[in-house]
Design brief:
Blueprint (H helix, E strand, L loop, with lengths): L3 H10 L5 E5 L4 H14 L4 E7 L5 H6 L4 E6 L5 H15 L3 E5 L2 H14 L2 E12 L2 E7 L6 E6 L5 E5 L16 E6 L27 E5 L8 H12 L2 E4 L1 H5 L20 E5 L5 H7 L4 E6 L12 E4 L2 H14 L1
Parallel strand pairs: 1-2, 1-4, 2-3, 3-9, 4-8, 5-8, 10-11, 10-12, 12-13, 13-14
Antiparallel strand pairs: 5-6, 6-7
Helix pairs in contact: 1-4, 4-5, 6-9
């Protein structure tokens, strides 16, 4: 059953509460923002609105500075439900300040509320104060490196977000007395969002993000050697990488280069084919979880970091491996 009528009755019986903290649950940053709001409000009343599907300790919110706590308890806690609850507060109280969290859900809530009420949106804030009846808010600029001072007139409302750890909570006072109301609310019809994970194409993904890499060096003999390497990589869902020598010879793009002058990689599997293992190459791949090296030179430095080393003709090994994978 919807609870609009009971909410309306409760709101109508309440005196105006000009300062609010909005949240989706009771967390550390909730009590931090309650402390910031309580200090800014001075002797004026502070309210807390929580739209949640979980039980909320309303006594704790009062102990940390709230005078009124409204909990909209609903199985549907999506953007439309959050906004509808906040607009009820706006309709009856015309808040001077609504202070919200800075996580993704709260930022979305803040933006939608500011747009719906034509309030000033300030995000993220560093400090909220009030001087001569006007809010003074320190906030980060668009670069995120510099702060700016924003003055909000007494005739304007502000919707403000603040990150966790920025504000200081008040010491809880278990003797504080406040009003609390919990409404069982069916909420609004929410959009249905379906998500699915689309794996990256290992042939195109940045080699630093690949779980498996098949790398080739001068031992491949020519650019055509990378065609055989790509064939193996496709069977293993692996990306293709290269040594600096293969890149300098023009056999493969520079973005595929591993090493001190290329990219450092740490895949689960690194197969080095025809790579001798110069120090600058080892520096870029020696922390891979499993390293397999194929080289005709038994003294090649690559074997010093390999977990499995094959002294053999790489073309024969690659052809046999591809054939076995195709048959399986």
């Amino acid at each position: 059953m919807r609870c609009h009528e009971s909410v309306e009755r409760v709101m109508a019986a309440m005196d105006r509460v000009p300062f609010w903290v909005f949240d989706l649950d009771l967390a550390d940053d909730t009590v931090e923002r309650l402390g910031e709001t309580r200090r800014a409000a001075g002797d004026e009343r502070v309210g807390a609105l929580v739209v949640t599907s979980q039980p909320i300790d309303t006594d704790a919110m009062i102990a940390h500075g709230a005078d009124t706590v409204l909990v909209f308890h609903s199985a549907r806690v999506g953007p439309r439900t959050r906004l509808a609850a906040a607009l009820m507060i706006w309709k009856h109280h015309q808040p001077t300040l609504a202070l919200m969290g800075a996580d993704a859900d709260n930022r979305s809530w803040a933006a939608g509320l500011a747009a719906a009420t034509e309030a000033m949106l300030i995000s993220p804030a560093l400090m909220v104060q009030r001087t001569a009846g006007e809010l003074e808010i320190a906030a980060l600029d668009r670069s995120g490196k510099l702060s700016r001072q924003i003055r909000v007139s007494s005739e304007q409302s502000a919707v403000v977000t603040m990150r966790c750890g920025v504000a200081e909570p008040l010491q809880p006072d278990s003797g504080r007395i406040g009003r609390k109301h919990v409404f069982e609310w069916s909420g609004q019809n929410e959009s249905i969002i379906r998500t699915r994970r689309i794996p990256a194409d290992p042939a195109k993904v940045d080699i630093r993000d690949a779980d498996r890499l098949v790398a080739g060096g001068r031992g491949l003999g020519s650019a055509r050697g990378f065609e055989l390497l790509q064939r193996l990589a496709s069977h293993l869902d692996a990306g293709v990488a290269a040594s600096r020598m293969a890149v300098d010879l023009g056999w493969i793009d520079r973005e595929r280069q591993v090493g001190q002058t290329g990219k450092s990689v740490q895949p689960q599997l690194y197969i080095a084919c025809g790579i001798s293992g110069a120090s600058h190459h080892l520096e870029g791949m020696s922390t891979a979880e499993h390293i397999v090296a194929v080289n005709t030179d038994p003294s090649a430095p690559i074997f010093s970091v390999a977990h499995l080393g094959l002294v053999a003709d790489l073309h024969d090994i690659l052809a046999r491996t591809c054939q076995a994978l195709e048959q399986s």
